[in-house]
Specification:
With 227 residues, this protein is of the alpha/beta class. The protein has eight helices and twelve strands. The strands form three sheets. The chain has a five-stranded parallel sheet, with helices on both faces. The longest helix is centred in the C-terminal third of the chain and has 18 residues, at 191-208. The model has no long low-confidence stretch (mean pLDDT 87).
């Protein structure tokens, strides 16, 4: 088993120590801090293969910490840990740049499984080039969709989903394939999350083009088409 360098940011010191001990007993190297600003400093310094961030932190909450880190170009995979389990809370975390979302209370075995999944997955889907299909283009660097009706900015996760569709236009894509490309084959994302993101991307596409559509294939998945 390879050692993974992990940053843990948790304001509950007892829970933080339990997480640290559990991860270290599995052979990983852990940096533990209890404050949002301190967590941002360590995350921005680089060198971590995975970060585990609590959402509710003193001085800087986990979502704001993550937004600042992503804005500064930090690409470290992040698991956001929280007691807030509503779907909108999870979407807020994923839109801020989280790669996975874990609701308290959780078993250490589940956290370890999610860390292994993130450590195995590719860091970026694309190299930042502009992708085109019909009259729509996507820049994964600037997170902009452009079309004859204008342009709009989208989230990183929406960009990854649309990029997967743009790389496979007019091809039926299974839900399993999309999950593997956007969230990672071993991720623990709820099934409804894909439907919600498809809804968002459809809305963005409609704002810039009346041609490019995402077709639902019952029992299969989705397909990008030029309607």
């Amino acid at each position: 088993m390879s050692k993974t360098k992990i940053l843990v940011v948790e304001d509950d010191k007892n829970l933080g120590e339990l997480i640290k001990e559990g991860l270290e007993s599995d052979g990983h190297e852990i940096t533990l801090c209890n404050d949002g600003e301190e967590g941002l400093y360590y995350l921005s310094s680089g060198g971590y293969e995975v970060a585990v961030l609590d959402r509710m932190l003193p001085s800087l909450d986990g979502v704001s910490l993550l937004q600042k880190a992503r804005g500064a170009g930090v690409t470290t995979p992040v698991i956001l840990v929280t007691a807030l389990g509503q779907i909108n809370d999870r979407i807020d975390g994923l839109d801020a740049g989280a790669d996975d979302y874990l609701v308290k209370p959780f078993e250490m075995s589940e956290l370890l499984a999610r860390i292994r999944a993130l450590a195995r997955r590719p860091r970026d889907i694309s190299g930042g080039e502009e992708l085109r299909f019909a009259d729509v283009s996507l820049s994964s660097m600037t997170l902009l969709i452009k079309g004859p009706r204008g342009r709009c900015e989208i989230s990183k996760k929406e960009s990854e989903l649309l990029e997967t569709l743009l790389r496979n236009p007019e091809k039926p894509l299974s839900r399993a394939f999309i999950y593997a490309r956007v969230w990672g084959a071993d991720s623990f994302v709820e099934d409804s999350s894909l439907d919600i993101y498809i809804h968002y991307v459809r809305r963005h596409l409609a704002a810039v083009s009346d041609r490019v559509k995402i077709k639902t294939l019952r029992g299969v998945g989705y397909m990008l088409e030029d309607a």
